[in-house]
TrEMBL record:
Keywords: Cell membrane, Membrane, Transmembrane, Transmembrane helix. It comes from the Bacteria. InterPro entries: Na/Pi_transpt (IPR003841). Pfam families: Na_Pi_cotrans. Its main location: membrane. It is found in: Cell membrane. It is a multi-pass membrane protein. Signal peptide: none annotated. The chain crosses the membrane at residues 9-34, 54-83, 104-124, 136-157, 178-196, 216-241, 253-278, 298-327. This is Sodium:phosphate symporter.
């Protein structure tokens, strides 16, 4: 029978591949819209230790069905300082296991039901009023389209077996020797890197295997390469991020490369074990054909590919998990510079959970952390001056201070209890106000550093900029007594700084000594300085609005009395019955 290449092959293969990938996209988008924020928050809390990290990575990736999305999320959380490098490595290990759950589902023989299920959920998506119902329908529609697309691809690829030219070409892609095995792995890795989806590559391979175009051993070899190629996306996502984010991506790459390098020498042994296992559990031989409508199909090839991919990732994680600490130490040295010795301000230093519910002990911790936040903000002046010991990227440093600010406000707000006396509630409100003003002050100083860093000034303009920075430096001493040179030993009035209006006038008078862009930058910078000085005065006034020492003293007395009553109650004899 003559084969119509366009109708019998191109239409179902390209259409099926498109529907398959669209299904993956719909399913990921629907699930992520429902749960990605809660998953991100859960991950930030759960990934405290390597074991918890593996479990969290497996669970979340199993839910959102995208190891790519998961690793990109992890890289972003590392960049933001929410997750450390060590737990991030373990989360990525778990993500590799979680994504194989989807590969196992894809292997189920549900192709004929895919179209009708996809149609039903598409109607629900179109007519539903609730956003939540629409997202559920979108995820279910994507799930159904995956099977229908795979079924179309399998049917379209089947005629290739009757084309001698194609079969001759595919003979060169048989994993029948170690050389050919490595070639298959690298080709699959390249394809996965181009389409950014290991699930899509594995879906294509399952279709080729089920149609009998690829023998089942070669299909399994391609799935191994898909695990290697999927690391490219996380690496690309980390290119413009922090060094620790890059290291998390390198962990993903090195983890999968090591796993593939260990598995390749054991490949033919593992294939024999897989074939034996499938026979023992009554699944059958994946290499045996089954006649469907008078045509040979190999329905167990997708099952074999899914099983191998799952076992490979579990084996790889179990093998390398004990070396998470080694990964962290080695990767921490990659691209290390003196800048990394700078304190990480994205992580609270004094906000201990142990005292979170003890007002008398929590308030001093909040005050210390707020002072630390101010110190982080003052570093923007060092960044503006080009200090080598200061962070090089003002944006990255601001992101760290913003995270710290949110943690301070959340920790402080958590102190609010209904049974607290009014004076304590008033102090908590004052601390929240101070934290808010501090965040705004930090943002203004970030704007100062950002503007200075991106503009090159003439000598006359640079003098005005230096004066503005020094003026702000001195103003900070009102709320940071030890900032800069503490209590300079100079006669009163020996050093004075012009006000902002005078500096504006000097800027406008620069004339030909500075370009329009320079003058515009300085005027914007002076606006930020003015806002910063207003906020400094607001912080100072807020600290004086409540007698904090007195409130804390009364709180300590109350706590001591309460503890005393508890001790007395604990020592009192129990009457006999």
């Amino acid at each position: 029978m003559e084969i119509d290449i366009f109708k019998d092959i191109l239409v179902p293969v390209i259409g099926g591949l498109g529907i398959f990938m669209l299904g993956l996209e719909f399913m990921a988008n629907g699930i992520q819209a429902l749960s990605v924020n809660s998953m991100r928050n859960f991950l930030a809390k759960a990934a405290g230790t390597p074991i918890k990290g593996v479990m969290a990575g497996t669970l979340i990736t199993g839910v959102i069905q995208s190891s790519t999305a998961m690793t990109v999320m992890v890289v972003g959380l590392v960049n933001a300082g929410v997750v450390g490098l060590r737990p991030a490595i373990s989360v990525i290990m778990g993500a590799n296991i979680g994504t194989t759950l989807g590969n196992g589902l894809i292997a189920l023989p549900l192709g004929p039901l895919g179209l009708i299920c996809g149609g039903v959920f598409a109607l629900v998506y179109c007519f539903a009023k609730s956003e939540k119902v629409r997202n559920i329908a979108l995820a279910c529609m994507g799930f159904a389209l995956i099977f229908y697309g795979l079924n179309l691809m399998t049917g379209g690829l089947r005629p290739l077996r009757n084309m001698p030219e194609v079969m001759e070409l595919l003979q060169t892609l048989r994993a029948d020797s170690y050389f050919n095995l490595i070639k298959c792995v690298l080709i699959a890795a390249g394809i996965t890197a181009m389409i950014h989806s290991s699930s899509a590559t594995i879906g294509i391979v399952m279709g080729l295997g089920a149609a009998g175009v690829l023998d089942w051993t070669t299909a399994v070899a391609f799935s191994l390469g898909a695990d290697l190629g999927t690391t490219i996306t996380s690496w690309m996502a980390s290119l413009n991020l922090s060094k620790n984010a890059k290291r998390a991506a390198y962990a993903h790459i090195s983890f999968n490369i090591i796993g593939v390098c260990i598995t390749v020498p054991l490949f033919f042994v593992s294939i024999g074990v897989l074939q034996w296992t499938m026979g023992v559990f009554g699944m059958g031989d994946p290499g045996l054909a089954v006649m469907v409508d008078g045509k040979e199909t190999f329905p167990l090839v997708p099952v074999a590919v899914g099983l191998y991919s799952t076992v490979f990732n579990i084996f790889n994680t179990a093998l390398l998990f004990p070396f998470v600490g080694v990964f962290e130490r080695v990767l921490s040295r990659v691209g290390r510079s003196d800048e990394e010795d700078i304190e990480d301000y994205s992580t609270p230093k004094f906000l201990s959970r142990e005292v979170a519910n003890d007002f008398a002990r929590a308030v001093p911790a909040i005050q210390q952390e707020t002072t630390r936040h101010l110190q982080a903000g003052a570093m923007f002046l060092n960044i503006a001056r080009g200090d080598r010991k200061a962070p090089s990227d003002p944006g990255e440093h601001y992101l760290a201070t913003d995270i710290l600010s949110r943690d301070i406000r959340a920790y402080t707000a958590n102190l609010m209890k209904e049974d607290l006396p009014y004076d304590q509630l008033d102090l908590i409100a004052s601390l929240i106000e101070e934290a808010d003003f501090t965040a705004a002050l930090t943002e203004s100083m970030h704007q100062v550093a950002r503007r200075v860093k991106r503009e090159k000034f003439s000598p006359q303009a640079q003098a005005i900029v230096e004066t503005a920075l020094n003026k702000l430096d001195v103003s900070l001493r009102a709320i940071m007594p030890d900032h800069g040179i503490a209590d300079p030993q100079m006669p009163a009035g020996h050093v004075s700084y012009p006000d902002v209006e005078e500096l504006r006038a000097k800027t406008l008078a620069l004339g030909p000594n500075a370009g329009a862009a320079e003058r515009g930058t300085i005027l914007a910078l002076l606006g930020s300085v003015e806002r910063a000085e207003i906020l400094i005065r607001r912080i100072d006034a807020e600290r004086k609005s409540v007698n904090r020492k007195s409130v804390l003293a009364r709180a300590n007395i109350r706590r001591e009395n309460r503890e005393q009553r508890m001790d007395d109650g604990g020592l009192s004899p129990v009457p006999a019955e």
